[in-house]
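In this section we walk through a basic example: taking a raw amino acid sequence and producing a predicted 3D structure, encoded as discrete structure tokens. The instruction is simple. Fold the sequence below.
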Amino acid sequence: MTPTLVRHHRHGPNTASSPATDAGARARDWAEIQERMLVPLYEAAYERLEVGPATRLLGLGCGSGLALLIATSRGAHVTGVEADPGRVALARERLRADGARTGGSAGGSPGEDTRLYEGESAAVCDDGPRAYNLVTAFEPLGCAAGDSEELATALESAIPLAERGSEVVLAGWGPPERCATSSVLRVASRLTETLRATGGGRGWRPALRDDLEDVASRAGLKPDGSGRVACPFGYADMDSAVRGLLSTGLFDAAARATDPGQVEKELTEALHPHVRRDGTVWMSNVFRYLIARTP
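The resulting token sequence is shown next.
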């Protein structure tokens, strides 16, 4: 499955700067534009693991709930944890619209099948052990300095909630030479050089070959298979591409080091080689996933 090209409606004057200043708008940009780019990754992992009614899934960094929604369509029982309050709200909205019952500490009445929590790790799950048999961490590694350490910490909080021998899925960017978006993300790295030198921020970093295996080892997990999935990033126009990429948060440090206008200008320039004759923006990418098991 390839991502759908989505034309995102402008919110009014000076829309280019709004994602940096309006967290709610940026969360919606993520849900409406960017999150769907990883659908092939979600589906490949679920198909390989035969996700279905017997699956009790804990999704770390669940975004605005698209991966959870796909799992519920296969009959799985899901719980999601996400640090961004705007994305959590949209996930709850999305899953309710699909008929799933949601609750948890971030608001609403506890539901039997689906729970959503706002937080950095599974430590916020306050309804007792759920005996999950699948843990997913679909936010790709190889984006920002320090992301491996953050994921290892999140996994440490999730593993005690899973059954012994449960499957864990980790995801990451493929080799930079096979990811056209890498050249665009380097804008963030270049603009944050000064900020990083003073310890004030972190920028994009290229994916390393053993990123996923290193995190699994650090968390005490045993690797049990891997795969690669094509996840092209397709946008209806330049505005959608800029909004979608800004919604990832990978350019936040760059905006602090310079200013949002400069980031958007350089991001637009970096995207120009990927604009097609019809005005759409298309970048081919390959993502990796690792399947590991809890001790």
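Looking at the output, two observations stand out. DSSP finds twelve helices and nine strands in the chain. The CA atoms of residues 255 and 262 lie 8 Å apart. In the next section we compare this with other chains.
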